[in-house]
Known about the structure:
heterodimer; A: Rossmann fold; 10 helices; B: mainly alpha; three-stranded antiparallel beta sheet; globular
Amino acid sequence: MSENNKAPILEVRDLGIDFGGLTAVNDLNLTVYPEEIVGLIGPNGAGKTTVFNLLTKVYQPTRGTIKLCGEDIGKMTTIDVSKAGIARTFQNIRLFMNMSVLDNVLCGMHNETKYSPFTGILRLPKYYSQEKMIEERAIQLLDIMDLKDDMDLMAGNLPYGAQRRLEIARALATSPKLLLLDEPAAGMNPQETEELMNTIRFVRDHFKIAILLIEHDMKLVMGICEKITVLNFGMMLAQGTPDEIQANPEVVKAYLGE
Amino acid sequence: MKTIFDKKHISRTTTYLLVIVAYIVLTILQKTGNLGSLFSGLLVPVCCFIVAGIGLNLNVGISGELNLGQAGFMSVGGFTGVIVSGALSTMIPNGIIRLIIVIICGAIVAGIFGYLIGIPVLKLQGDYLAIVTLAFGQIIMSLINNLYIGIDKNGFQVSFINNTLELGEGGRVLLSGPMGANGIDRIATFTAGIILVLVALAIVYNLMYSRNGRAIMATRDNRIAAESIGIHVANTKMLAFVTSASLAGAAGALYGMNFSTLMPLNFDFNSSILILVYVVLGGLGNMKGTIISTAILMVLPELLRSLQNYRMIIYAIILILIMLVSNNATAKEKISGLFKFLKKNKAEGVEANE
Lengths: 258, 354
């Protein structure tokens, strides 16, 4: 396999977190290679979103190491992790609802622009050159996510599916190396899910990034993921290709019971 | 010219135009003697409260943090201005230059106070800023109530006990506790007030439509999402808060220069609430609304003066009505329905006459 020739983007070793006496995630090992789509699945309460919160440092891990492109991000803050190259979307949509669609994406480029508040207030030439640059890129992104016609709308007025796409566009605006998608297809109908699968593949190919996604829609997971990790009660249950996972009796047991 | 009249900028452009047109009209009225002394006296204070209101709107409407101590920052700016003006009166006799220095000093000192308050508070989530700024307003008032400052050849003298200033020859008392500052050189003008309003508008608008302004609004809308895309939440809130405090300081400095006496009681808790009322009534995040509502609500009590004791009741009723009409869909419908009804009747009447 070609992936073995490349250095991994994300390397998680023995990751764990305790909330008081409760162990939410334990001994998680996860490796994501460049331009790979990896699925993270498991029954409700398995700790999938907690893993995302650990990777983006919303929670500080109790044990284990996280490496992004070989660099240890275990001690970083959420903001530094974003700068280092991990972007995410949220299970319950978290857009800037009272801002325009375009502004939502421009916010994602916050750290790409470097001018100070004074430059902004005094409207120095640097303001115009940088704003022009990011606006062009934001419109390109919106075009890719099929939101260009709605760019002056308030984000809160978008239909549900479009809000999900806008969240992905905002995450992509931070120029990530690794994109974390938390249930991107939640609440979508089969046709929208089909379109979303194509979009995710396109994003991977166009931006050459790795994608780690949590999803309950098995059609989507089995359809686009090259590798799947199954969590149950915070523990890693199985890891492998979609075919291997589907044939794994442990996984079937975790989902359906005995 | 094309850019300032496109869809994005039109609201900002009309706000600037509104201020300039109001200035021209009022100046003509004043010069031709059509503006009563009562309204002439209100011109500068209205400008001051508009500037403080624009600042507060940045903090409450754009940044989403409640601030109940805007008058406290005006107080800091005002008394800083009085002291600076008093100290410089012999050195810089030119009123305009001194006024500019006074306003800048007021803004800077109020900004520093804002920064110091913001350090512990803005890292927290919730309404802590409201509580702390409320206390700040009271503390500043008490502090200035007990502050005696004088100046002589050897420099400033500061005391917290009455009549203990030992001023040498040619010394002057700048601040005398609850009596405040007396004999202030009245160098504020309406023109200066309008320029300050325009500068405040430019600062807030330009900030709003820049990288930092977007970050401020993003933090307001969703703190967790803002952090996830690399926005430093506490610093962002601090920027909005310090800018807001500085604008209040500048407004206070101008306010102080408009009267011969400035007392700590001029900036009490009621003033803070009044500014908040202007902002909420004008619409959160809407600068033009703040300007209009401040002007109306400051002039209204003077217009109602003939009603004597009833005027505050009428004032309150008008306030409630405006709130209802501007924020309640049903009330809006009823009122617009009433207007339509009247219009229709009128139109029918005209037709019948023909």
